Amino acid sequence: MAIQTKTWMTSFLFKEFLSFFKRSILGGIFPSNHHLLILDGHGSHVNLEVIEQVQQFGLNMITLPSHTSHVLQPLDVSYFKPFKTTLNNNNNNNNMVSNNYKEPNKIIFANWVDKALDAALSKTNLKNGFKVIGIWPFNPKAMDGRTKPSELYTTKDNIITLDEENT
Predict the structure, then answer these.
(1) N or C end of the chain: smaller count of CB under 10 Å?
(2) Angle between helices 81-90 and 106-120 (to 10 degrees)
(3) Where are the domains of the chain?
(4) What is the pLDDT of residues 14-24, one digit of tens each?
């Protein structure tokens, strides 16, 4: 665990994470034992030092386009979404009524988190995230129909223009 004064990832912390990640891989990282690291495009993930470190370790790294992790990141699709949904369902009016409309204390909230983790964290959920977005098994058509361009904009001759029908 690492703590810093800011609330976001830094290049220094990310490089420390990569070193920890490399040490944590069972069997090691080498050309016949590939590992794929999927990341958002945060600046701490995409700088020359990080790319050199990743290449030195023999990792394969891809960064997702901005604002797409909720659709393209396997854990967002298969784990974080069910976790958040279950946690939000626990924090509903029925629970507030049974708690006499008091704010939940740390023990109650920890219980909600525990139930949400139990509901979301499973091998099946984790594997399904990679399957749904087509990473493993590889399926280039997995995302067909799941995303579409904005209806407000159309492109003509590679120039983005406002679609007048929707204004």
Answers:
(1) N
(2) 140
(3) 1-63
(4) 999 998 888 88
